[in-house]
Amino acid sequence: MMFRQKLVKALEQAVTEAYQKGLLTSSTLPEVTVEHPQNTAHGDYASSLPLKLSRATDMPPLAIAESLVELMPPLPEVNKIVIAPPGFINFTLSPEWLTKQVEVILDAGEAYGNIDLGNKKQVQVEFVSVNPTGPLHVGHGRGAVLGSTLANVLSIAGYKVETEYYINDAGSQLDAFNRTLYARYQQCLGKEAAIPSDGYHGHYMIDLAKEIAKEQGDHFLSQPEETALKELGQIGVARIMDSIKRDLELLDVKFDVWFSELSLFSNGQYEKAMKMLRDGNYTSEKENATWFTSSALGEDKDNVLIRSDGSPTYFASDVAYHFNKFLERKFDTVIDIWGADHQGHVSRMKAVVNALGINHERLKVIICQLVTLRRGQEIVRVSKRSGDIITLREIIEEVGSDACRFVFLSRSADAQMDFDLELARKQSTDNPVYYVQYAHARIASILRLAKERGIDYSQGNVALLTSEPELTLIRRLILMPEIIETVAISLEPHHLPYFAQDLATVFHSFYKHCRVVSKNQEMTAARLKLVRATQILLAKTLHLMGMTAPESM
Fold first, then answer.
1. Are 221 and 366 contacting, i.e. CB atoms less than 8 angstroms apart?
2. Is the pLDDT of residue 232 over 70?
3. Which of 198, 218, 237 is the last residue of a domain?
4. Which of 45, 203, 267, 474 gives 20 to 30 Å between its CA and that of 168?
């Protein structure tokens, strides 16, 4: 159990006893929360519970605080409890307990921070899922890193996690892609052909058509147009998907499942989902189309499921897809990570999940806001290479996978972000990516020096770690389980880079004030244990973010 949870239980126990003894008049227990004070002089943890109880009982908060402190069970981890106006209880951890945590971390190794929050519940994280009609761009990269990092964290938080890429290989966008590719293919062979108005105008379509024309010659010109469109489209989609997979591999993003939209129709999920909505009286027929009556479930308007020509909408495919996720594959929770242009799709998706008999709370949708590329003060709008869209691959090639991942994670998904390519490449402490990885490299260097000098620190006495820089570093290390819990509950992995930067800062400060390898053998051994514990958790944080932990820089 994390100490914060232990503290919450101790406070709950004190409140229960206070009711039993008549020291509190209300039987309503508000939620007991424990936070970290902004000012470290106020202690390591604080609770405003007396203020909450005061509002419910009309009793003075300081009097409530005194009663609770007296009734709390003994906490060996705590050195000091202070009651502070207007009604806070502040807790300071014992230095003796803190130093023992270094051994706890060393004994647990990479497993330190793993928690059993999920109880093996099945969670699906679906992300990227870009139409196979073009290369990945910077916004897709943000979603890819967010999804893969979330999956990493949920896995060590006790969930059974499956990652999935949904391949949109059906619908009108694929038709526009096929027609564009056919036109570009004809142009490559000297034929006049117009690009459709809803087509794809990027330079990559010309490159793709040239590639196919070089391999296949004029093979498709002798075929009926319908056959040529279909076969060319299949080749084109396969090539684009291969390119997408390669780009994701460069970013160290992997998927357990690549799910085809077409399979929803061939395997019957689409028909089953539509029947379920009809049987539940959630559909209506008007204007020769079939509508989902989402207005009956609190939405502003109804939504088309099947167009007047009989073709399913993008929304209908999504209904079938979530029918498959929840009712056939039986995931307990589904996390969808979508781009900013899908914001308006969230509420109707939640409504249709309810209509399928599933609690919409089991569907979590994360919207990734836009990314603006910069070089210092200059906004970068087009690719130097092709003159149009800037691909994710170009960014990875320029700044590296680690920098991409750290930057993409550095802001909350719901906040728009600037990606400064110049800063991401800097080999200086101004660059947070470099700063964090340099901390790990510095630790590796210290441990190499100890090994070269034949220092065996396995019997080091951590009780010697009593200085403020040492204890401050330990205080940061023991936050790891709380960080994992926070990310797993909030689904906000930006807490990881913040933690990594904070840990790196505190370590660099410790290194400045405390000589690790010195003539004092006992202190050297103790500090090497602390340094090794720091390395374990810094590396763990970097690996959760999908980054490398360099041994030298």
1. no
2. yes
3. 237
4. 203
137 with 391: CB under 8 angstroms? yes
Domain range holding 211? 172-237
Residue 171 pLDDT exceeds 90: no
Report pLDDT for 384.
65
Asked if 266 and 308 touch (Cβ cutoff 8 Å), the reply is no
**235's tokens:** 């080749």
Cα 204 from Cα 240, distance rounded (Å): 10
Report helix, strand or coil for 60: coil
Helices (H), 359-513: 392-399, 401-409, 421-425, 432-452, 468-477, 480-490, 495-513
Return the axis-axis angle of helices 225-250 and 172-188, rounded to nearest 10°: 100
More confident residue, 28 or 346: 346
By the 8 A CB rule, do 538 and 439 touch? Answer: yes
The C-alpha torsion from 188 through 194 and 199 to 202, rounded to 10°, is 40
Band (58; pLDDT cuts 50, 70, 90): confident
Percent of the chain surpassing pLDDT 90: 92
Is the pLDDT assigned to residue 141 strictly greater than 80? yes
531 and 442 fall within a common domain? yes
Whether residue 229 is contained in a domain is answered as yes
What is the full DSSP assignment across 195-245?
Answer: PPTTS--SHHHHHHHHHHHHHHTTGGGGS-HHHHHHHHHHHHHHHHHHHHH
Which of helix, strand or coil describes residue 477? helix
Structural domain ending residue among the three candidates 237, 252, 285: 237
CB 515 within 8 A of CB 454: no
Cα angle 76, 80, 85 (rounded to 5 degrees) comes to: 135
What does the mean pLDDT of the chain come to?
Answer: 95
SS3 304: strand
Same domain? 434 vs 540 = yes
User: Helix, strand or coil for residue 483?
Assistant: helix
Element at 57 (helix H, strand E) = helix 49-57
Residue 538, token pair as written in the block: 């810094």
Residue 322 falls within a domain, yes or no? no
Kindly state the helix (H) or strand (E) to which residue 335 belongs, with its residue range: strand 333-339
Q: What is d(CA 351, CA 481) in angstroms, rounded to the nearest whole number?
A: 35
> Rounded to an integer, what distance in angstroms lies between the CA atom of residue 147 and that of residue 533?
28
